Amino acid sequence: GALEFYKKCKEFDITPVIGTEAYFENGSRFDRPKRSEMETFHLTLLAENNTGYQNLIKVSSQAYLDGFYYKPRTDWELLEEHSEGLIATSGCLGGLVKQLILKEEYDAALKAASRFQDIFGTDNFFIELQDHGLPEDSVVMPHLIDISNRLNAPLLATNDSHYTHKDDAQSHDALLCVQTGSLVSDTKRFKFEAEEFYVKTASEMRELFKDYESSCDNTLLIA
């Protein structure tokens, strides 16, 4: 769908940013742990230029060809081989850095962020901030700011977008029930714990991250 997406954006004078949310293995993509012991993290990768797009294809392909184990997984080695022209972020709550923070492994979180920065470069690795009103968001935020300051890594404000408008949340919830074979009345079912996972406007994002204006400026920088 990348080519169709690119052409449609150009048609409406929108800058297309082609990327992927990769599954990342903190060890080796060749590891085959027990499923109960398997930890896979999210990693956002964006193509900065044509070289980056080619590397994005290589990372994605190798994740499937030799990293597939329940999911297509990339790892440090693959990123080091194909980092040119790619922009990376520390990811959502499912990202390695944030997961380490939530486990209170703060030194490991700093070390992981530093390694990503070494691979992609100071200008191409961003500390990603999100705020969907979840308790975890407020837990990780100050530590992410600290990591950004210590590494001199730029901030990036993002919002997970699982539906287009805020009032789509109820419909999305119903679709999750269909997908998981659950009833809306089931309190223990899989569900999103907030209704903030929609495509927010620039003004909404500016208000949400008013204490970190550069994080919104950097979305425009990337574009």
Describe the structure.
With 223 residues, the chain is an alpha/beta fold. 45% of the residues lie in helices and 12% in strands. The chain is built from nine helices and six strands. It has helices at 2-11, 50-65, 76-81, 96-102, 106-120, 135-151, 169-180, 202-208, 213-222; strands spanning 19-24, 41-47, 73-74, 86-89, 125-129, 155-157. A six-stranded mixed beta sheet has the order 3-1-2-4-5-6. The longest helix is centred in the middle third of the chain and has 17 residues, at 135-151. The radius of gyration is 18 Å and the shape is globular.
**Overall helicity:** 40-55%
Secondary structure tally: strands = 6
Principal-axis shape equals: globular
Helical run tally:
9
Task: Give a quick account of the main beta sheet: strands, pairing sense, barrel closure.
Answer: 6 strands, mixed
Helical/strand content category: alpha/beta
Give the terminus-to-terminus CA distance: 19 Å
The arrangement of helices and strands along the chain is HEEHEHEHHEHEHHH
Q: Would you tell me the overall average pLDDT?
A: 95
Beta-strand proportion: 5-15%
Weakly predicted, low-confidence segments? none
Calculate Rg over CA atoms.
Answer: 18 Å
How do the helices and strands line up, and which of them pair or pack?
Blueprint lengths: L1 H10 L7 E6 L16 E7 L2 H16 L7 E2 L1 H6 L4 E4 L6 H7 L3 H15 L4 E5 L5 H17 L3 E3 L11 H12 L21 H7 L4 H10 L1
Parallel strand pairs: 1-3, 4-5, 5-6
Antiparallel strand pairs: 1-2, 2-4
